[in-house]
Amino acid sequence: MSYEHLQDPNAEYTMRDLSAETMGLSRPRSEGRDVEITDVQTAIVDGNYPWTLVRVYTDDGRVGNGEAYWGGAIPEIIERLKPFVVGENPLDIDRLYEHMVQKMSGEGSIAGKDIAAISGVELALHDVAGKILDVPAYQLLGGKYRDEVRTYCDCHTEEEADPDACADEAERVVDDLGYDALKFDLDVPSGHEKDRANRHLRGPEIEHKAEIVEKVTDRVGDKADVAFDCHWAFTAGSAKRLARRLERYDVWWLEDPVPPENHDVQREVTQSTGTPIAVGENVYRTHGQRRLLTEQAADIVAPDVPKVGGMRETAKIATLADMFYVPVAMHNVSSPIGTMASAHVGAAIPNSLALEYHSYELGWWEDLVEEDGLIQDGYMAIPEEPGLGLTLDLDAVEAHLADGETLFDEA
Ligand SMILES: [Mg+2]
Fold it and tell me: How many angstroms is it from 227 CA to the middle of ligand 1?
């Protein structure tokens, strides 16, 4: 069975169609702005996540780099998106985003992998649009609030359940690497568990987590903000007990203490405690974040730019968050491309709290681009070069390709 009829942008029975042709967009633009997308390609790099790089090519010889959140089938979905953007003007970022979402609606584009794939193209559109207009990507988002975006270092130790080892690593990352913002996992085994499945935290487990928080914040609390991530692990009651137990410490935020599906529970947990609760890396688009904000179920929201819908979608989420006086701490596990795209968003929104950096142990994260010194003492300076301001080092990309992947076909 061929599905080509579902991808024909001119098919008579297509639903709401936002292609330039259907919309009747034919008025010439000023010099140099009548550009068409000719191709979209992907290549997966074997980083500490399978970083899915996305390239958008145009008929004036420009290339835009983007990145989609990692995961199986993302390149295949991007292949399905291609007919909706090839032939289109990459400067119409908003319309092309809505066009892709609409065209993929039958495949589930309210959330999930479709939106991650669309995000990858959306990031690349910002890069190539910036290059066409000769402006940095933050300029496309309305200009900047800050020259540098604060990052926080997601920290790990071999002995993740040892409070002293966590405190030692916190001290090393602050003193040696220069970060003034950190995050540690709190969903680590304590040795007091009786059942791995029921999500309940026994008293000794809560005390073990409190000991990690106490030792880390005692050690670096005067020099750094420290957040703690629970990865959706606990029952509603356990999350409330844990959050209340941590109120005596200076916790930057407690992240995802309960599973993400039941919004009512999330709101109840957040409103039950003075410990700031961050959520939002596992929901998609502004719609996914809407009730977290309008029902005051989050103290901090954590959209992931290459996953949630892209740069403009994250800026829209930030606007909604700002109406509820909520800051944005962007989740991020990306290569330099997705990270820099997130940093441009962080520069352009008023309520940016911090951007995650998740690759400090990798050693070659920055090798993927020709620029270096991307993160200095925990801060990312926003480049003035057009687009995202990064140039992929294709030799480095090729050297780190995931098994079975091939470099972009530039022909
Ligand atoms: Mg998290």
Answer: 10
**Edge-to-edge strands of the sheet including 63-68?**
37-46, 50-58, 63-68
Ligand 1 centroid–CA 370 distance in Å is: 29
Contact in structure between 333 and 70 (CB atoms under 8 Å):
yes
Residue pair 66/57 in contact by the 8 Å Cβ criterion: no
Pairing of strands 181-185, 375-376: unpaired
Per residue in 15-70, pLDDT (tens digit) is: 789 999 999 999 999 999 999 999 999 999 999 999 999 999 999 999 999 999 99
Residue bearing tokens 């091939």? 406
| Cα separations in angstroms, 205 against 186, 190, 199, 211 | 10, 6, 11, 10
Find the 260 Cα to ligand 1 centroid distance in Å. 11
Is the CB of residue 403 less than 8 Å from the CB of residue 170?
Answer: no
Residue 350, SS3? coil
- Quote the tokens at residue 340: 């820099």
Mode of pairing for the β-strands spanning 50-58 and 63-68: antiparallel
pTM metric for this prediction: 0.96
Summarize pLDDT for 275-307 with one digit per residue, the tens.
999 999 999 999 999 999 999 999 999 999 999
The conformation of residue 359, written as its DSSP 8-state character, comes to -
C-alpha of residue 63 to centroid of ligand 1, in Å: 32
Selection from 163, 171, 126 nearest residue 347 by Cα: 126
| Residue ranges of domains in the chain, CATH in brackets | 4-136 (3.30.390.10), 148-383 (3.20.20.120)
